[in-house]
Amino acid sequence: MQKKGKITVRGIVQGVGFRPFVYAQACALSIAGTVKNLGSEVEILARGENFDLFAAAVSRGPPLAIIDSVTIADTAADIPDGFFILESGTGSFSGMIPPDIAICDDCIADISRRGGRYSGYWATSCVNCGPRYSIINDIPYDRERTAMAEFPMCPVCKSDYSDPGCRRHHAQTIACANCGPELRLFDRLGHPVDCPDPVAEAAGLLDDGKILAIRGIGGFHLVCIEESADLLKHRLGRIEQPFAIMVRPDHIDALAHISSTDRRLLEGPVHPILVLEKRDPTAHATISNLHTIGCMLPYTGLHHLLFSHLRHPLLIMTSANMPGYPMITEIDVAMAKLNRDADFFLFHNRAIVNRVDDSVIRDGYIIRLSRGIAPKRTAIDLGNRCILAVGPELNVNATIYKNGFAITSPHVGNVRNPPTLEYLEETVRNIGRLLGAKYDVIAHDLHPQFLSTRFARELAADHGLELIPVQHHRAHIAAATTEPCVGIAIDGVGYGDDGSVWGCEIFSGVVPDLKRVAHLEPMAMPGGDLATRFPERMLYGILPDERITGLLASRGWSDIELGVLRKQVASGFNVTRTTSTGRVLDAAAALLGICRERTYDGEPAMKLESAAAGGTAEVWKIPLSMQDGCEVLSSRSLIETALCRLPEGPDPDRRDISSVAASFQYNLARGIARMAIHAAGRDGHTMVAISGGVAYNHAIRETIRREVEAAGLACRINAEYPLGDGCVSFGQCVYAGKLLEQRT
């Protein structure tokens, strides 16, 4: 007996090959009917004896789909014989387009197969892989609303697109060398390089030591071989900053320790940069002078073609933009800004509609939320009001909540400059349009001077929206959990309730009622941000005595400089007070002579961690006290203990330095954990949540976890969002939603 009905599937059902999947299931089960894309849902009219089997099959969806709900209803509609894919219409906007997806094995085989139609074609893709978010202008996701609209299909591609038996059936990115985007190679003066194969020519130039700017899926990379890494660093003025590398798959085990979990991440749909421990901590120092190295595998057809011609097993591949600034996407901008850094330019002529940087992961925790992961969609009930959260100042992204889902954008950057602010505004416009968002509320950081705060205020004023300021570290905890807990937020900087700089905060309660119950002792930051750049100033701010001035004098500080520093700290003039974990780690790095000037974000603490990796930690006394109702950990006492254990002599043993570094991290983490355990005991909590950029430090994070779990408490760390400030917009959104819920 035949059965018919209307099946509506909601979720991420665009850009995942859902309609071809439904078509294939219908053909296999002798189902008649139609399938139509309606934005964030697919509407299927179906008739046949195997209706129930068909409904079960489409409810599972293709591999890249994320299905929220499936409804089956009776229908009186006439259902034609045969099965047809109808033109898209407009409907729900509750879902989202998927992120860009690494090239699949089948497409790699296609470009590698000599004589095949896709042989050597750099932009080969199918329904299971390729660009998505980076090329979309609007939804529903059809070719005419993407960057591929500029490239009409040739007859053969159109045939594949229409063939239900082909995996490029309704693949909106289908293209070949006859009809698709092209590659061109130019020198730094803008002259075209005459060559039959731009990819082979580019590989030869790289092998010869040249530096190339290469336009990828989401923006430009600067690319070179390892032997040219030092030259690239000097051209960029980033002498100390580590580079990420792209590695031939068969070479990565020789470089770094890689677990089975890491390998699955590297080879999966995301293909992120993974921060791995080197096999030899001193190796590849021109790439990274840390004990870790950021590695990724080729994730586009262009990358695989490059490596097929390249003699070298790895390439430095770093974003071409300045740190904290938006990815460079336009060809003319790249030629103008990069002609002193790059010797040649390899670019394609497909527009990058939405820029995306490479995602970065360490120990399973996201550092940068971007390509392959974002836009990120999380099911969460925050009520009926539409919320926009614009993030803090550093490592910013934006989150939009609508109809039970929070959508977080890819990484934007450091909103300290007009270009990145413009990119944040552009991102909010683009994702808001794709979602059909009409905001009721805007959540922002508590800091009144942030450019993101200004953006929130201006948008709210223009549209008559409610503003909800959210304290930075409470947003971190809200991103980690909405359950009752003790929350540990450990990072570099966040504007506190009292207007000072917070950075090691322990809260007790449940979002939005999070009470500050413990923290590091407030320390002097002589010169404010100057103490961040020169951590020896931070060292003296924590321990202002003659032992430190003597140490600084031995390192070349003049009597005048030391005199000014003494007077500044004593008078409090231009001195900020902070409880920052990051600044304490900076001071320890300065004390041990590991890093005297910060040249990139997080450098002193990262170098301290690398030094500590070779040491053995010992147990120190944990100096705790109660001040104004909060438990306080004395960073001064920890620095003083480290000073007493500092090896003497002009050339101390590196192993001794490493052990002091390891001990400092270990006991700082023990102290933080102990305060959290005490708070849990006082307030009856059974869970401790951890967030903040310092939690990327493996030794600190795992020491806190072990101490907490040894006390019989559960430990919550949200691996779905960054531990650093890339989680703050999501946390702001959650906090605002819970606050609104509390009011009703």
Please compute the radius of gyration using only Cα atoms: 28 Å
- Name the helicity range: 25-40%
Please report which band the strand proportion falls in: under 5%, 5-15%, 15-25%, 25-35%, 35-45% or over 45%. Answer: 15-25%
Question: SS-based structural class?
Answer: alpha/beta
Gross morphology is globular
Q: What is the typical, i.e. mean, pLDDT?
A: 95
Number of strands: 30
Largest sheet: 10 strands, mixed
Low-confidence stretches: none
Widest sheet: strand ordering: 6-13-7-8-12-9-11-10-14-15
Termini gap: 52 Å
Supply the key terms.
744 residues; 10-stranded mixed beta sheet; 7-stranded mixed beta sheet; 30 strands; 33% helix
At a glance:
With 744 residues, this protein is an alpha/beta fold.
Q: Secondary-structure map with pairings?
A:
Elements: E1 3-12, H1 18-28, E2 32-37, E3 41-48, H2 51-60, E4 66-73, E5 83-85, H3 105-112, H4 155-162, E6 183-187, H5 198-207, E7 212-215, E8 220-224, H6 229-236, E9 244-247, H7 252-255, H8 260-267, E10 273-277, E11 292-296, H9 301-309, E12 314-319, H10 331-337, E13 344-348, E14 360-362, E15 365-368, E16 376-379, E17 387-389, E18 399-402, E19 405-408, H11 418-435, E20 441-445, H12 451-463, E21 466-470, H13 472-480, E22 485-495, E23 501-510, E24 513-520, E25 523-526, H14 529-533, H15 535-542, H16 546-554, H17 559-571, E26 575-578, H18 581-591, H19 603-612, E27 624-627, E28 630-633, H20 635-644, H21 654-683, E29 687-691, H22 698-710, E30 714-716, H23 728-743
Parallel strand pairs: 2-5, 7-13, 9-11, 10-14, 17-20, 20-21, 22-29, 24-28, 29-30
Antiparallel strand pairs: 1-3, 1-4, 2-3, 6-13, 7-8, 8-12, 9-12, 10-11, 14-15, 16-19, 17-18, 18-19, 22-23, 23-24, 25-26, 27-28
